[in-house]
Design brief:
Elements (H helix, E strand, L loop, with lengths): L1 H28 L6 E4 L3 E4 L5 H4 L3 E5 L3 E2 L5 E5 L7 E9 L5 E10 L6 E4 L4 E3 L6 H4 E5 L3 E2 L5 E3 L9 E10 L5 E11 L7 E4 L3 E4 L12 E5 L11 E4 L7 E10 L5 E10 L2
Parallel strand pairs: 2-7, 9-14, 16-20
Antiparallel strand pairs: 1-3, 3-4, 5-6, 6-7, 8-10, 10-11, 12-13, 13-14, 15-17, 18-19, 19-20
Length: 273
């Protein structure tokens, strides 16, 4: 019995020693360090079409066990705009023991502009015409391109099939959360459907208060009566625009055929920063 007790004690001591050895060994082998990501710049400027590779400029990572992990850093997420053209990018890196580190900085898209509207036709309609503003108003974004499908159109004063000048509001938002809104005049007149048609190169333009005066005749493409006779030389232009003040203005183009039927087209001018 005494021999058995001695053997049991020896086995217990040996087992305990072996367990302690493996515990210490695993402790030595284990990695409790966390990778560190370093960013050269607090705000990185990039091009509009920047790729993830561009966003990783100046980003390095190091881990005490694994060493340099710079090539392992990924772009985890890019936020919506904090302000137009400025957002946050979050980076992440993982070491060999699955420890994850993250870091965040701001990026600014150089040359970014908020979405812009355009008109495929003027907003001068006859009361006898079908009104289709969804086709007339379009929008483009310098990052996404055509975002016309995102446009929301509304009006608080428009009443169908009556003459008048009504305020039409259009709002569009890009995928980065930046919105643009314009309020433009919709002109509804008792125009003959056989009235001469005036074509312009543009029906909506943007200007800055610092821009020089514009010769609005340069936007004329031409005019024809219902029989196709050229009336371009007979077009008159009328406008009351103060290019030094922000606001929305209209330039009016008129032409009359040999039956004294008048045609009318409108160029909308938005002046602002």
């Amino acid at each position: 019995m005494r021999i058995l007790r001695v053997v049991a004690v020896l086995l217990f001591v040996a087992t305990t020693a072996l367990y302690g050895y493996f515990l210490v060994t695993e402790k030595i082998k284990s990695d409790e360090t966390i990778p560190v990501i370093k960013l050269e710049e607090d705000v990185l400027e990039v091009a509009i079409d920047a790729t993830n590779k561009d966003l990783l400029k100046g980003v390095t990572a190091h881990d005490e066990k694994d060493g340099d992990l710079s090539d392992m850093v990924i772009v985890e997420s890019v936020s919506n705009f904090i302000e137009p053209g400025l957002c946050r990018v979050t980076y992440a890196v993982c070491d060999s023991n699955n420890h994850v580190a993250t870091a965040t900085r701001k990026i600014r898209y150089k040359g970014y502009e908020s979405p812009k509207f355009s008109l495929s036709e003027d907003l001068c309609y006859s009361i006898y015409e079908r009104l289709d503003l969804a086709d007339a108003i379009t929008a483009t974004d310098c990052i996404e391109g055509d975002i016309s499908d995102n446009i929301v159109i509304s009006s608080e004063d428009y009443t169908g099939a009556i003459e008048g000048v009504f305020n039409i509001q259009a709002t569009v938002t890009n995928r980065k959360g930046d919105s643009s809104t314009i309020t433009v005049p919709l002109i509804v007149e008792d125009l003959n459907l056989s009235a001469p048609e005036i074509e312009l190169t543009d029906y909506l333009i943007y200007m800055k208060p610092t821009d020089k005066e514009i010769d609005f005749e340069k936007f004329i493409v031409g005019a024809e009566d219902e029989r196709g006779n050229d009336l371009t030389d007979d077009i008159t232009v009328k406008s009351k625009i103060d290019t030094t003040k922000e606001g929305t203005y209209t330039v009016h183009y008129y032409v009359t055929d040999n039956k004294d039927v008048e045609g009318h087209a409108v160029l909308t001018v938005i002046i602002g920063e």
